């Protein structure tokens, strides 16, 4: 199979139509198996996935070291095609606590120096602050990335979870390739203002949470036990009545998936793919089995009747519960 590609904005490279988000291999969704994680990255590269997404704070460097090892041990021709997208700026403590964001230019360069070392690469393909630092104008943070680009350490500027005004200010400072933001059948907040803004400015969307962190994957069950370090144990959408309501939506999607002979996850990913060539879903597979399922979405065609049925099963705003717990909602520039 030849992997389809999509452009990363009008100023960026072509990337695989699906990217691999590596976060869950190190953090936030409970334990992951290191050997299987590396095998998953290798399988993704082998299938033609070029875009690998990480953050320097995912497991406090663990995720970058993991990707570094996967790249080092991959065949050279696949390693050379890999495009690594890195988020920085989130501050952590030794116990894993979160303590804000740092977008000062000196900090940006410091973060980048460590990321390059951990990843074992000579440049980062797309570099972005994970959340806006409220103390630092976006122009200063993006300006620091532009300096890293001039020196060859970074190729492109990206953004993450920022609103229309910040997108405009960033794009006026330097060319921006993509905005990374949550977008799925049950997280459609970007459609009103953010998506029209990125489209006007020629910026792509790298969509995360396409499966709503597994909630609409078809594999999540009402009685699933989540560990204390699993984000989903605190996420409003996974709690009590919200979870019951949201899994009812998944049951409605399952009927459509069964009619088409595909899986629920494939319907959810194919729906995001169907939103436009400027949208690149990042799938959070951390096993080869889940990766294969995700890649299968590239072969799913949704016709008008399918899209209508999907919209009826999960209308906009159908989900119960916010995307993040309240303290984290406060950091989003997008809500
Ligand atoms: N910019 C930001 O603010 C931000 C925020 C979050 C994530 N991200 C990036 O976006 C990436 C994707 O986000 P995400 O991991 O939350 O997305 P996701 O794809 O919605 O969720 C991934 C989870 O869904 C479950 N799953 C079930 N079936 C699957 C399948 N066929 N393929 C993949 N996963 C399946 C897995 O959980 P189990 O293994 O437990 O079944 C997996 O850990 C992250 O890895 C990260 O790089 C960015």
From TrEMBL:
Q: What InterPro entries does the entry give?
A: Aldo-Keto_reductase (IPR050791), NAD(P)_OxRdtase_dom_sf (IPR036812), NADP_OxRdtase_dom (IPR023210)
**What's the domain of life for this entry?**
Bacteria
Q: Identify the Pfam families for this entry.
A: Aldo_ket_red
- Residue span(s) of domain NADP-dependent oxidoreductase: 18-313
Query: What's in the keyword line of the UniProt record?
Result: Oxidoreductase
The record's Gene3D superfamilies line, in alphabetical order, gives: NADP-dependent oxidoreductase domain
The region called Disordered is annotated at: 316-335
Q: What is this protein called?
A: Aldo/keto reductase
